[in-house]
Design brief:
By secondary structure, the protein is α+β, with helices and mostly antiparallel strands. It contains two helices and five strands; from the N terminus they run H-E-E-E-H-E-E. Helices cover 20% and strands 22% of the residues.
């Protein structure tokens, strides 16, 4: 989508602090970290959010979780980490392009606020 900030990041039109990139997935540091380590993982193709995941596009979601596990292992998150996605404004989604927050480096409460 031409007006989507994460599509622009995926296309390299807006800079990001990249952690990982392949043909279908990009991971980069969040601009406003909510934990000592806060990385966003996105599909390069536009999916507006978790509610738009279907049998036709879900393969990239599985791949994103593989990448998240790889990043967690590489960065040594031995104390644990959290992967979360917000879907819709009431859940706190501010960017309407599917993304998963990979958070680590502090204690996390449950349930989330
Ligand atoms: P959400 O609120 O769940 O939609 O998450 C969107 C996230 O994107 C927030 O944590 C923002 O800090 C982050 N964000 C927005 N713009 C950028 C950007 N240009 N580079 C990195 N992170 C961003």
């Amino acid at each position: 989508m031409s007006d989507c900030i994460f599509c622009k990041i995926a296309a390299g039109e807006i800079p990001s602090n990249k952690v990982y990139e392949d043909e279908t997935v990009l991971a980069f540091y969040d601009l406003a970290p909510q934990a000592p380590t806060h990385i966003l993982l996105i599909p390069k193709t536009h999916i507006s959010g978790a509610s738009e995941i279907t049998a036709d596009n879900s393969a990239v979601v599985a791949h994103i979780f593989e990448v998240a596990a790889q990043i967690a292992a590489e960065k040594g998150f031995s104390d644990g980490f959290r992967v979360v996605t917000n879907n819709g404004a009431s859940a706190g989604q501010s960017v309407p392009h599917l993304h998963f927050h990979l958070l680590a480096g502090r204690e996390f409460g449950w349930p989330p606020g």
